[in-house]
Amino acid sequence: MKCFAAAMAVPAQQAAATKDMTPVWQTDLPTTGVHMELSNTDDISFDPAYYAQTREDAFYNNLHEISAVMAEGAPVVTFYGVTADEVKLIYLENIGDYLYVDYDRVAPQEKLDYVRIDGDGYVSYKLDTAYNFEFTVTTDKGEDQYLVVSREATFNKNACRRK
């Protein structure tokens, strides 16, 4: 029962938390030039990440480096100068130390895994926690990909283990 109560308290705590939309990190994507910002988090890191299209590719070290940012909690990712039609996101599965694989191109479900906010000249994605999202931005200039790893910071998974 304690585990259930702790799990139920997490969404309430997250909902009650004030969203800070001040960017903690920002960049202009190299190919498209689209401005990307990360907010609603204060603990970020930039570890190298590698990507394989299939598990077989990973086994044979057919890897590609992917730009990545790791964030605690439920970050908000905002892209300026594009519409939602120009931004796609998928899950990437973490199969090892900083190794992510995309083997079936599963799409996250809006309003379940993320909330999209369309604004005047921008589109934002408030991510759920504990997922790896690959964003692909496509414009007439080309395509950029960026991995955002959203790590759970508020729920202690060990609290539910039996002693």
Class by SSE composition: mainly beta
Q: What is Rg? A: 17 Å
Main β-sheet, in a few words? 5 strands, antiparallel
Helix content: 10-25%
Q: Please list the strands of the largest sheet in the order they lie side by side.
A: 1-2-7-12-11
Give the overall shape: globular
- Describe the oligomeric state of these chains in a short phrase: single chain
- Percentage of residues in DSSP E strands: 35-45%
Mean pLDDT comes to: 80
Please work out how many helical segments DSSP would assign. Answer: 2
Number-wise, the strands total 14
H-E order: HEEEEHEEEEEEEEEE
Distance between the termini: 14 Å
Spans where pLDDT lies below 50 across 5 or more residues: 1-18, 154-163
Write the layout of secondary structure elements.
Blueprint: H1 2-16, E1 25-28, E2 35-39, E3 44-45, E4 49-52, H2 55-59, E5 64-66, E6 68-72, E7 76-80, E8 87-91, E9 93-96, E10 99-101, E11 114-119, E12 122-127, E13 131-139, E14 142-151
Parallel strand pairs: 4-10, 6-14
Antiparallel strand pairs: 1-2, 2-7, 3-6, 4-5, 7-12, 8-13, 9-10, 11-12, 13-14
Q: What does this entry look like structurally?
A:
By secondary structure, the protein is mostly beta strands. 12% of the residues lie in helices and 44% in strands. The strands form 3 sheets. It has a 5-stranded antiparallel beta sheet with strand order 1-2-7-12-11, with no helix packed on it. The chain has a 5-stranded mixed beta sheet with strand order 3-6-14-13-8, with no helix packed on it. It has a 4-stranded mixed beta sheet with strand order 5-4-10-9. A hairpin with a 6-residue loop joins β1 and β2. It is globular. It starts with a helix and ends in a 12-residue tail after the last strand.
